[in-house]
Amino acid sequence: MISPSISIIVPCYKQAQYLSECLQSVVEQSYTNWECIIVNDGSPDNCDEIANNWLQKDARFKYISKENGGVSSARNIGINEAKGELILP
């Protein structure tokens, strides 16, 4: 398996209503050698459900769920898991 050259980090907290639109935008890019790491920062909405739907659609999506710690904490966890040469927070 080829490592992705770009890792996209998507923190989510109380923004589930925008998550599908965001992830659809990632999929529609012309560049395809990416991974997208969705980090649920302890969100009380249905972020889990939406993220899991995208995980079923495309293996380039990864998902991490953590206790709420703020957007910087969520981004840092995503960055630590990233395999890409470049990171897009």
At a glance:
With 89 residues, this protein is α/β, with parallel strands linked by helices.
General description of the model:
The chain has 89 residues and is an alpha/beta fold. It is built from 3 helices and 4 strands. The protein has helices at residues 16-27, 47-57, 71-81; strands spanning 6-12, 34-41, 61-66, 86-88. It has a 4-stranded parallel sheet, with helices on both faces. The longest helix is centred in the first third of the chain and has 12 residues, at 16-27. It is globular and about 35 Å long. The model has no long low-confidence stretch (mean pLDDT 96).
Nearest-angstrom radius of gyration? Answer: 12 Å
Percentage of residues in DSSP E strands:
25-35%
Give the distance, in angstroms, between the N- and C-terminal Cα atoms.
24 Å
Strand order of the largest sheet: 3-2-1-4
Shape: globular
List keywords for this structure.
about 90 residues; alpha/beta; four-stranded parallel β-sheet; 3 helices; about 40% helix
List the helices and strands and how they pair.
Blueprint: E1 6-12, H1 16-27, E2 34-41, H2 47-57, E3 61-66, H3 71-81, E4 86-88
Parallel strand pairs: 1-2, 1-4, 2-3
Helix pairs in contact: 1-2
